[in-house]
């Protein structure tokens, strides 16, 4: 285990913060994670494999955050590390960030269970910095200055301001109501007194929403919560189950943003996570019965022409 060095120097008036432990399942993953970590201005423990990280966590008492970067399908050491990271996140010892690819999302989420971690999927540099900022607190990012280059210092300040802005937005999104969690018994099919919705009409509505991006900029119409609810209602009607990765695609926004919406709606009791009884490495998302009933009654009131 080595402590990476960089040209960042800390203000002497600021207390030295605990380092970030960087872990990757490939050399490229470790280098990518280390780059993001060092850009934050915090000290970095780098070049750790998943197996090394499990051992290091036993020895290391203090961290600002644990960053896990995954390039390949999770192996047994990666799965063990994710499970350990979930337990550490629950104990609030330090923040946890997991960066993965969309192809790995379902298995990664199954290993993390309901752990309160910052999960990044196909994230760009700004999303990665924002995720780290949320994991350890926005005030920790940008506390360093680059003594080697004024231009680099200016760039770091710009990144710090942007990360703080994004982190504040994401934090507001992550706030959930205090609604009690749903029990498995609530997953019964909707009652017979709720209106039926035509699967064909719903498919036509979803297609019409997608077509807007063919004529106007797609970001004008970003409405991930609504798009995910439509996709889940369609799946419910045709009795299909929706994995987390598929629902992220249906949201028509970056996967990391979609995950935050899924978490927010799940915390509020609008959606329910269900493990696949036949495959412990896959997680499905369903609407809560009250959400389904409300959506069906909405369409009964306004008609299926509402887009």
Automatic annotation (TrEMBL):
<dbReference type="InterPro" id="IPR036388">
    <property type="entry name" value="WH-like_DNA-bd_sf"/>
</dbReference>
<dbReference type="GO" id="GO:0003677">
    <property type="term" value="F:DNA binding"/>
</dbReference>
<keyword id="KW-0238">DNA-binding</keyword>
<dbReference type="InterPro" id="IPR036390">
    <property type="entry name" value="WH_DNA-bd_sf"/>
</dbReference>
<protein>
    <submittedName>
        <fullName>Winged helix DNA-binding protein</fullName>
    </submittedName>
</protein>
């Amino acid at each position: 285990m080595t402590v990476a060095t960089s040209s960042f120097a800390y203000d002497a008036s600021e207390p030295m913060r605990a380092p970030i432990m960087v872990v990757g399942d490939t050399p490229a993953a470790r280098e990518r994670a280390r780059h993001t970590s060092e850009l934050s201005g915090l000290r970095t423990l780098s070049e750790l494999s998943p197996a090394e990280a499990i051992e290091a966590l036993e020895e290391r008492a203090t961290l600002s955050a644990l960053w896990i970067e995954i390039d390949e399908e999770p192996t047994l050491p990666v799965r063990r590390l994710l499970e350990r990271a979930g337990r550490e996140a629950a104990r609030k010892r330090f923040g946890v960030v997991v960066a993965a690819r969309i192809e790995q999302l379902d298995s990664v989420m199954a290993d993390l269970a309901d752990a309160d971690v910052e999960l990044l999927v196909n994230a760009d540099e700004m999303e990665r910095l924002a995720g780290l900022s949320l994991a350890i607190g926005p005030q920790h990012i940008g506390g360093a200055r680059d003594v080697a280059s004024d231009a680099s210092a200016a760039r770091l300040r710009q990144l710090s301001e942007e990360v703080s802005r994004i982190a504040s937005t994401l934090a507001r999104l992550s706030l959930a109501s205090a609604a009690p969690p749903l029990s498995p018994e609530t997953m019964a099919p909707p009652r017979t007194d709720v209106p039926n919705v035509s699967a064909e009409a719903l498919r036509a509505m979803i297609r019409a929403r997608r077509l807007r991006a063919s004529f106007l900029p797609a970001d004008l119409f970003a409405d991930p919560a609504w798009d995910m609810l439509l996709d889940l209602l369609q799946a419910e009607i045709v009795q299909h189950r929706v994995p987390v990765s598929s629902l992220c695609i249906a949201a028509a926004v970056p996967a990391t943003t979609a995950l935050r919406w899924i978490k927010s709606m799940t915390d509020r009791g609008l959606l329910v996570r269900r493990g696949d009884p036949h495959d412990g490495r896959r997680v499905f998302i369903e609407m809560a019965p009250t959400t389904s009933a409300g959506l069906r009654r909405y369409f009964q009131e306004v008609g299926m022409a509402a887009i």
